Amino acid sequence: MSNAPHFDIDVPAFWADPYPALAKMRKETPIAFVPQLGSTVFTRRDDIFTQEKRIDVFSSHQPNGLMNVLMGHNMMRKDGDAHMSERQAMFPAVSPRTVRDTWVRQFQAHADRILDELAPQGAADLCKALALPLSAECLKDVTGLTNMRFQDMDAWSQAMIDGIANYTGNKEVEARCHAATAGIDAAIDDMIPVVKKHPNTSILSVLLASGQNMDSIRANIKLAISGGQNEPRDAIAGATWALLTHPEQLALVREGKAKWIDVFEEYARWIAPIQMSPRRVAKPWTYGGIDFEPEDRVFFMFGSANRDEACFAEPDRFDITRDTQKSIAFGAGPHYCAGAFASRAMVADVALPSLFARLKGLRLDENEPVRIGGWAFRGLLNLPVKWDAG
């Protein structure tokens, strides 16, 4: 157990809005042990930026961690050469060139089809009607699991996310996660002969071609699903809501004074879809006056880092003109998100420009409040809107 000062949180309140507690921690106890989470948390951006790279101390290798136990040993839970070899094997499926030459076209086709069906309706919950199916359909292509329904892709992703954040040990959450991983394994089994006969640029196809062992392939596809569905889904819905509640920011984009990628980068800073990354202390270490012992658990709080007053002026304000270079929404070290290029393309190149172009007069439905939740993963739970259907 580290000698970090203790900081108590109200877990339901932290789930509803973690930012007040994180701001207090940054100011008073920037490295603190939170008993309710059973972990020492880092809250300041520069501390996280430097220490996340110390893989000899803060290791991603967590043999008994929830992700390993529930999803298999994937590359996110490996360090050094073991991590890099699997990352390089996946790279051809998610490289900037593949995203540009293959995925953007397919992403746009999914967006056009979904918006064709949606546009005449005049009202919808955009989380369910657009963000969820678009992210899932795109991820089906990228993973190679085109035999899945988009509803299953989203549900299984959420079940795994809930499972790996299940630090209170809820048995029902664990059971849903097991059911999800079994469903994904069955989908992989069905698609293996298809992509072997007709190779493509999907993750399943390139990993099979690389000769990676089957257990690792399964674990890495589950990893891609657990992060590749919720982050673009939540960024699409969240960035849309941010623009609708900040019309002066939307005007900047429409007037050509800012770009859609600026919207994406600022939203990912403001409300990072992935708020936290866990680590295991691998050896005795002292940093910031805190002694860390082997097997201590550490949480790097990306969501807090991205609102660090030392790096961002008025960090609680959504401002697409700000410099977001210090944002670590995708991580900072060797585990920088492999799907970042695909995520940016899906949201900034396809989803946002397409939906604002097609849904004329898009506005919030004032009859239903927007709900937001989560501290490990955070996003909108609903987005009720109206537009001019005619």
TrEMBL record:
User: What organism does this protein naturally occur in?
Assistant: Bradyrhizobium jicamae
Q: Which PROSITE patterns does its entry note? A: CYTOCHROME_P450 (PS00086)
Highest taxon above the source species: Bacteria
Statement: the UniProt record of this protein carries the keyword Heme: yes
Which UniProt keywords are present, listed alphabetically? Heme, Iron, Metal-binding, Monooxygenase, Oxidoreductase
Pfam families in UniProt: p450 (PF00067)
Which cofactor(s) does the record list?
Answer: heme
Family the UniProt entry places it in: Belongs to the cytochrome P450 family.
Name of the protein in its database record? Cytochrome
| InterPro entries hit by this protein | Cyt_P450 (IPR001128), Cyt_P450_B (IPR002397), Cyt_P450_CS (IPR017972), Cyt_P450_sf (IPR036396)
GO molecular function terms noted in the UniProt entry: heme binding; iron ion binding; monooxygenase activity; oxidoreductase activity, acting on paired donors, with incorporation or reduction of molecular oxygen
What SUPFAM superfamilies does this protein map onto?
A: Cytochrome P450
Q: Which residues form a coiled coil?
A: none
